[in-house]
Each structure stands twice: as structure tokens, then as C-alpha cells.
Amino acid sequence: MSDREYLKLNRVKGDLIILEDVSDVSYGEVLNITLQDGGRRSGKVVAIEGDKAVAQVFQGTQGISTSNAAVNFTGKPLEIPLSRDILGRAFNGVGESIDRIGPIYSQKRYNVNGRPMNPVARTYPRDYLETGISAIDCLITLIRGQKLPIFSGNGLSHNELAAQIVRQAGVKGEEGDFAIVFGAMGIKHDDADFFRQSFERSGVVEHVVMYINLADDPAVERITTPRCALTAAEYLAYEEGMQVLVILTDLTSYAEALRELSSSREEVPGRKGYPGYLYSDLATLYERAGMILGKKGSVTLLPILTMPNDDITHPIPDLTGYITEGQIVLSRDLSGQGIYPPINILPSLSRLMKDGIGEGYTRGDHEEVSSQLFSSYSRVQEVRSLAQIIGEDDLSEADRKFMEFGRQFEEKFLSQHTDEKRTIEDTLNIAWEVLSILPKEELERISPATIEKYYRK
User: Which runs of consecutive H residues, i.e. helices, occur in 304-344?
Assistant: First the structure.
């Protein structure tokens, strides 16, 4: 910690303070601010230009002027104390307790920016992680150590889906070693209450760590929320040997806060006003998921982002798609039909599922069933387009079978209750129930032996 105390600020702008004539200050360093009335705040250095330092204040700059604050630099980056006691606890975006139980006492403090994972030390993810949701487990299988974003839209049921995954997700045979880190950025108070009550009612709260940044909290705190959550996940995975699922919602709020900060720093904007480094910034979050050779634990990441105007080409989902290993896309049309979860399987994919399903992982017929469901549902869209032109009565017998398959697939397979947990066996059995609507000769992606074993006559 520096002995020097700076008694005068050069400028206060938004959530930023600017100091001149500073020395021995580094990027990302934490500083303490003491106000004349005795109030204390903290911040971190976000830019250095010669002898000038720009810092963002986590609690906001309201009440701070250029002459009523004293600043001390700590000489350290933002660090949070971690131990196994964080399970079942709730914290704000900078790792401070908000559940009235008190702070975490630990001799170990961890830099929230983490350390880059050596690519050579990564191990290839193979074991699947069961969410209890048919559309995900069968068609967009989540693999332990994977980063798989959920692309949603404003007003869709992504919060309900996130809460359901938290309640139901688990690793077969290792339930006691499973934990969930839930990071929320810019959410409303009623959404925060919904998540808390949902976890408490289902009894999973002891396995969940929450980092919550509310909509009326300072935007700058939003930048550190996912980093605190991922730091906690890395600790639980690599030091406590746990299988950790990280759910971050909403990455769009995070990117908006990043854009606001970038604008305050008068940086040259990129696409749609977002900073030019949005891609690399998102990568510093997403790339913290994975598995390390020789370590028992894993970090699996499910970031949720709402696409502005449902535009999948918007910079946030667009750049996210480049970094992550697939996507789960929610559909406004399916939601309008009353289907929950409204997962549109056709633009959704999991690039790692091929190596984590089948005999020894899920069930021997999983890969063939998944491929056939994608193929048949794609055909359903073509038949529905044709039916709009010529009418359903004039369709061929085979096309009418596909129309019926499409209805049953959406009503029985895609749709499930928010408290309904399906095992992978349940999911695959329902898949065969709807596939058996189609004639055997239409199941081109499934081998005759598998059809003989599972086809419902």
C-alpha cells in the first residue's frame, strides 16, 4: 500500500475520477477513497496516461468533489476472500456480503481477474452435465467444462430457464461435489427475489453462490460481477475439486456497462457504440471455463444474453458466437404458442456434444436420435410452409405424418413444466415416442438395429 495520499482530484466525470501527478500506480490497482464526512469508497484504476490515472468508483461518485476526497492506492488488484463457506451465500458485484451473515473470513484472497489458463494444460471436455431439460440434454448437450451461451430476447423466459437449470443440474454419481455459481448483472429487484426464493424453496441454496448486481447499483460494479463469480468458480473447481456450473445473466447488461465506461473515457467507439475491445473483453470471461490436467474439478459456463431487437447479428451475440462452443437460442414464436422452454433447436447447437454422448456417457442411441430429431424437425418447417400454400388437407400422407410429428415434438418433447426434471433416459424415451409417429423408412439417420430395439409399434 502506498504511503502517499492524494488530497485533490483533477476531475470527476460520471463514475470516474481523474488524478494527476501520480506515481507507482498500475492498471487494475484498487484505491481507497475517504470523504470529509468520514465515508469510505473504493475503486480501481482503468486507465493510465503518463502521470495521470483514471479510476472507476464502485459505489458511484455521488457526493464526491475535486476537493473533499483523499485517495490512497493499495498497490494490489481487486481481491476477494474465498473459502468453502461461500456456498449458500450472496454477495454484491465486488464480492461484499449482502445476506447479513457477515463477511467471509479467509487467509486466502484471490485476484478477480484470474490468471490465463495455459492451453497446453487444458484437458478436452467429455462428460456430460445433466440439466433435466429435454431439449438441452438430448439435442444441445452441455458438456462439463464447456461454455454454451443462451441467446434470448426481452420478455422471454430466460430467467425461469436459468432458475430451473440451477435447481435441476447435476453430475451423475458426483452430486455431493457439484456447485453452482450464479452471477446476475443489472437485474431488477423482483427478479433477484425470484431467484433467491426459487433456490430456497427447492433446497439447493446450500450448493449455490450468488453474486448479484441490481439495476440501481452502480454500472461500474457490473464490470466486476462476472469476474468475482468466475474467480469463486475457479477456487471451488481447482482447489476444492468440485464440478462447478456458472450461470451469468445478463451479459447484455455487462456489455452496456462496458460501453458506458468506454464512452466516459472518451474512447473511439466500434460497432453500435461498443468499445473496439468488446471481443477480447468477453473472451477474458468466457475462456475461464474449462478443465485442467491433473485437477478433479471443472468450470462449465452458461452465459445468458438478451439480443436487442432479437437480432442474432448484434455485436454481443455475434462476438459471443465466435468465442463459445455453440449456442442455445430461445424463440419468440414458440413462446407465443405457450411452449416452455421456448428453445428453437434448429439454430441451436453444442459443438462438443459429439464426444460426450453415446454408450458409456448417456445412452447408445443418443447420437442417432439427436441427428434424426434435427432432420425431421427441419422437414416439418418445409411441410408447414407448403401447408400454408396448398392447405393441410392436400398434403401427402407422409407430409401429414410430419405435421403430426411436429405438433407432438413441440407439445411432448420440447415443452415441460418449470419443476419437471427429466433424466436422459426419460428424454430419449419421449424422443422415441414422437419419432415413432413417422414411418420407419423416414428415419434415415438411425440404423435398422437401433430402430428395431427402440421403435414403438
Answer: 315-323, 332-336
